[in-house]
Amino acid sequence: MGSIGPRRATPIRADHPIEEGKRYGPVFEEQPIDTIHPEESSDGKISMNCRARANPTPIYKWHYNNWEIDFLNPQYNTKYSMIGGNLVINNPQKSKDAGKYICIVSNDYGTVKSNEASLNFGYLDPFPVDERPAVKVKEGTGVMLICDPPQHYPGDDPYG
């Protein structure tokens, strides 16, 4: 059997973020992203995510089109809520909620501002119900059928 004696602790690097008692400003783990919400969606909520690590625990704020969202204002406290650092928009409406959102996280050691995330509302107008004229073509030959899609958002290439 080996001898039992005092054990030495393995040192932790001074810059290691989980060192107990170490204080540091916020660092983003998740930032809000551009979102397209379907106008006809039955889901009555949209969540814009924001998460940061910091010590001491950070405070989260959200800005909509460069205005700070006041979660305590009775005019907004049924419209907006915050779960952790995530912004929840209840009963979203294109006319009131489409725009740019920014998450701001701070504590005594610093403040970080997220990338700007846009919220847009997607839609697809109905296809026309009019019957289209028949197209006749000889077997073995090519034909081009024209499609005229109804109004919609996003456009044909949302990533372009």
Key structural traits:
single chain, 160 residues, mainly beta, seven-stranded mixed β-sheet, three-stranded antiparallel β-sheet, 38% strand, elongated, disordered N terminus
3D architecture notes:
Residues 26-120 form the Ig-like domain. Residues 1-44 are annotated as: Disordered. It is found in: Cell membrane. This is Ig-like domain-containing protein. Residues 13-23 have a biased composition (Basic and acidic residues). The chain is mainly beta and 160 residues long. 2% of the residues lie in helices and 38% in strands. It has one helix spanning 94-97, and strands at 24-30, 35-38, 45-48, 51-55, 59-64, 67-68, 80-83, 86-90, 99-107, 110-113, 117-124, 152-153. The strands form 3 sheets. Strands 2, 5, 6, 9, 10, 11 and 12 form a 7-stranded mixed sheet that branches. Strands 3-8-7 form a 3-stranded antiparallel sheet, with no helix packed on it. The longest helix is centred in the middle third of the chain and has 4 residues, at 94-97.
Share of β-strand residues: 35-45%
Series of H and E elements: EEEEEEEEHEEEE
Structural class: mainly beta
The overall pLDDT average reads 85
Please give the radius of gyration in angstroms.
26 Å
Work out the helix count.
1
Characterize the main sheet.
7 strands, mixed
Gross morphology: elongated
Query: What distance separates the N and C termini?
Result: 70 Å
Number of strands: 12
- Helical amount among residues, as a percent range? under 10%
Contiguous uncertain segments of 5+ residues: 1-16
Domain Ig-like: 26-120
Keywords: Cell adhesion, Cell membrane, Disulfide bond, Glycoprotein, Membrane, Repeat, Signal
Biased composition (Basic and acidic residues): 13-23
Subcellular location: Cell membrane
